[in-house]
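Sample entry (159 residues):
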Amino acid sequence: MGSCWPLPLLFLVQRRTLSQSHQSPPVDSPPEETKSLKTIMQPPRDDLDPPKDDPFTLDELKQFDGSDNSKPIYVSIKGTVFDVTRKSDVYGPGKSYNIFAGKDGSKGLGMSSLKPEDAVPDYSDLPENEKNVLNDWFLFFQKRYNIIGTRYRYAYFSF
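Predicted structure, serialized as tokens:
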């Protein structure tokens, strides 16, 4: 019967022969899927300002939703306020993540939800997997946007 190659071995021999006949891309060229991810996700920044701890109430935060071009755009996650103005193409009025601008939408980020009713500060009832998603978002923001303050639940009272 001639030679009978086991199927997996035959596949590997044919694959090797075919791949040698085609010129392969240079080793330093990233795969296509990596290239597309790089265009979607911005790399961490090394030029961020030192974090500030200016206090913001939820009402004060509302002023920074992108509706007034003379003001920056802020997003709060887990009580930390980030300046996302440089990404107004994403957080500005009518843009995909504007739902989080001028507020603390921690719960919605953890849920990966763009519903207005989910963009609220209280994330205490999120299951563990969604809290992990929220933590990933927090780390993402922390590496890419300046921290300009802290969100306080209540306004200061003078006594």
